[in-house]
């Protein structure tokens, strides 16, 4: 039905998967949308009655795809595992998925009850020019606080190497992980001196990388035929484990209120990526209030920066890189970026 929000969500996800280069997921969702019977619909009962926009914001299609990929990665369903990439047989995968939903719907309900945690490490390629801008504007070392950090892979942004083609390179060329991204627009302040003096992160439900089940859940949100994303993920996980990267369990608004106060001699940087849409409206309001409260106390020698890579409120695209800097509290859009970090369209003046 044309007015069926769930069918519309599935069709939009087909287009997104195709546009982002996942032919397997596009085909798999094509089989699913043609087969929206009671058993499949029952997985989406928590969102029943929602209109298209709030259902899109809840990322219900990504929850479902993550549940399927998690099952395939587990090896608990040999038929599904065998049909997933590298084989990429979407028809066989959907037949196996239907059988799995009938057999154990609670497994899907449990997985889908928590919002997606992608922790796409290539998003650091979009965040980096924001950090450079903050360093150039303030001339101070950075004390970084990441919200909704999942497993914390993007805490290591200063340890990665970056290649933006003719626009420039940044970072240690000997880094185990090189992140490339297509660049358009003027150059950011590549030469701004960056020194990260502290780094911390929180998440409502952090992923513990040393736990194989939690690691598999995180990996399940990668699209299985996008081998480069998976390779980047594996390298970043190895780096995070070696570095002892940790994420605190906390509500983002409460944690920001407790930890986000400006400190003399550093710029406190609160940042997040593809996180805002998953927050309840009251948490969004509380977080904004906390940052504005801290911002009112910022000085030129103890500034506060709020860097975020998020879609505009109520919309899925475009993804915007925005910066609010206190004192002053002016907000500017630095760039529009690819959701997975593949491109940066820089807008801020050079």
Report on this model:
By secondary structure, the protein is of the alpha/beta class. The mean pLDDT is 94. The chain is built from 13 helices and 12 strands. Strands 5-12-11-10-9-8-1-6-7 form a 9-stranded mixed beta sheet, sandwiched between helices.
What is shown here, in short?
With 350 residues, this protein is α/β, with parallel strands linked by helices.
Structural class: alpha/beta
| Biggest sheet layout | 9 strands, mixed
State mean pLDDT (0 to 100 scale): 94
> How many E-type strands?
12
Give helix % range.
40-55%
What gross morphology would you assign? globular
Report, as a whole number of angstroms, the end-to-end distance.
49 Å
Counting H and I runs of at least 4 residues, what is the number of helices?
13
Query: What percentage of the residues does DSSP assign to strands (E)?
Result: 15-25%
Element pattern in H and E: HHHHHHHHHEEEEEEHHEHEHEEEE
Strands of the largest sheet, in order across it?
A: 5-12-11-10-9-8-1-6-7
Residue windows where pLDDT falls under 50 for at least 5 positions: none
Supply Rg. Answer: 21 Å
